[in-house]
Structure formats: C-alpha cells, structure tokens
UniProtKB/TrEMBL annotation:
Stretches assigned to the TauD/TfdA-like domain: 3-267
Gene Ontology molecular functions: 2-oxoglutarate-dependent dioxygenase activity; metal ion binding
Keywords: Dioxygenase, Iron, Metal-binding, Oxidoreductase
Cellular-component GO terms for this entry: cytoplasm
Pfam families: TauD
Family: Belongs to the TfdA dioxygenase family.
Cross-referenced SUPFAM superfamilies: Clavaminate synthase-like
Matches recorded under InterPro entries: AtsK-like (IPR051323), TauD-like_sf (IPR042098), TauD/TfdA-like (IPR003819)
Name under which the protein is recorded: Taurine dioxygenase
Provenance organism: Halioglobus maricola
C-alpha cells in the first residue's frame, strides 16, 4: 500500500510502500517519477537500498553524472561520497541547486545516509516554483529572459583557498568554464516556472550593471529561503532522499561538528535549462 506523508505546504513527502531494496518494477518506477514531479523532494526511511539498486534507480531516469571534486564509492564511480570529519569538515553551507556550473545540471539528485551524527545534520529544501509563483507579475516579467552566469570556481572558492586546494582542483577548474543559464527556467515535465539562480554558484546576471545584478541576486537569494517555500528533513538510518534539481534548492545544516557524517550521492543527467 502506497503511503504518502506530505511534510510541508510547498514541497516534500515521506513515502512508504515502495520497496527500494529490490529492483523496481516499471509500475513502481513510474510511481516514483510521478511523486517526484508532485512533491519535488521525496524521502524513503530505512530504505534498504544497495549501491547497485541506487545506481539502477538513477539509470531508470537517465544517464548519471560524475562529480569532479569528490571521492567515489569503491566499485561505483558514479556514487560520490559526501563526508564531514573533524579533520575535514564540510564547507558547503549556502543554499544551492546542485552543479549549476554545468551546461547540463542534474535533473535530480539521490542522497543516502550512511553515517549520521548523534544529533543535528538536518537538510532543508526550498521549492523554486513556489518562490517564482510568489513574485509579483512585474518582477516575474523582469526576470524572464535574463541570463545568469554560474561558475564552478566561485562555488568551490573555500576549497581553493585551502593549502593544496588550487592544485587539487586545477583539472576540474580547467574543465569547467563559467556557463550561462536562464534566471527563470521551465520544468520540462510539469511546465512550471522556477527561479534558477543560487548563492553558491551564480556570480552575476548578464546585461545588468554589477550593482544592479548584486541587488537583484541578493533579493532573490533572500527570497528563495522564505520559510513558507521550505521543508526540513531529519535523517535516520539508511534514508534515501530524491530531489528534483530543476525546481528546488537545498541547504545542509552544519550543526554537528566535530561528529562524523557520511552520505552517498548520485546525480542524474539533466537537460540544458530553458
Ligand atoms: Fe547539494
């Protein structure tokens, strides 16, 4: 029996009744896809999902991507490890959409909890369709048709500033020139419009003076974290989160230092935002 527990007004639902510990039937996969379109981020507790099944589920959506800056799970080059340890705490704190420095940012991200801190470490998501809908028609019209620049080096500036960071990331930076995406994108499946700039990777809006771009972006970066657009997930053992990266942003809450936390992630190829 499919059991859906919505978590907030704008997005997010916990799902029971779909067994991720086995290869999904076509019918169950279509259910997952429909739930993702409806809730934008969905969660499965005590999922029992193995790396093989995580990869298989990701591949049901489409080809998967590698990440230039992270280690991967042995035997699974497409599963990246996101780890925070006392000697190497995580540095990502800003609200963001994953990997928007790519020409084709992921359509979705799957994240599994492997090692959890004793307390803290929740993650927030925000609906970018709700954030777009809440703008005045005048502001929507102003933003549509504008493009913004997204830059890998800007997103990883703290890592670059570390000793040895610029050497470690040199190849990744060389492979990722800044890219341009629309400030407002359309969702290819639902047709909904969504805000598509984020404070981690977006450097500026083209065609505006720098002061104007800074002012518009700082308004949008504040706007996207409005409580009413968000949901918050408290991780438990073996949880799987699956979010639509075309219409959401997320932020990890780094309140567990120096505890150890390890997550495993797969990102699924997306289209060129339009
Ligand atoms: Fe992320």
């Amino acid at each position: 029996m499919l059991d859906i527990k919505p978590m907030a007004g704008a997005l997010g639902a916990e799902i029971r009744g779909i067994d991720l510990s086995v290869t999904l039937t076509e019918e169950d996969f279509l259910r997952v896809r429909k739930l993702l379109n409806e809730y934008q981020v969905i969660f499965f507790r005590e999922s029992g999902i193995t790396p093989e099944n995580m990869r298989a589920l990701a591949l049901s959506f489409g080809p998967v991507q590698a990440h230039p800056a992270y280690e991967t799970v042995v035997g699974f080059p497409e599963i990246t490890i996101l780890e925070s340890k006392p000697e190497a705490p995580t540095k990502i704190e800003a609200w963001h959409t994953d990997m928007t420095y790519s020409e084709h940012p992921p359509m979705a991200t799957m994240l599994k909890s492997v090692i959890l801190p004793p307390k803290g470490g929740d993650t927030l998501w925000s609906s970018m369709t709700a954030a777009y809908d809440a703008l005045s028609p005048r502001m929507q019209k102003f933003l549509e048709g504008l493009s913004a620049v997204h830059d890998f080096a800007f997103g990883f500036k703290e890592s670059l500033a570390e000793p040895g960071g610029s050497e470690r990331l040199a190849d990744a930076i060389a492979a990722h020139s800044p890219v341009r995406h629309p400030v407002i994108r359309s969702h290819p499946e639902t047709g909904k419009k969504a805000i598509f700039v984020n404070s981690l990777f977006t450097t500026h809006i083209e065609g505006l003076r720098r002061e104007e771009s800074d002012a518009v972006l700082s308004f949008l970066f504040e706007h996207v974290k409005t409580d009413e657009f968000t949901c918050r997930f408290q991780w438990g053992p073996d949880c799987l989160a699956l979010w639509d990266n075309r219409c959401t942003q997320h932020r990890p809450i780094n309140d567990y230092f120096p505890a150890h936390r390890r997550m495993e992630r797969i990102t699924i190829d997306g289209d060129k935002p339009f």
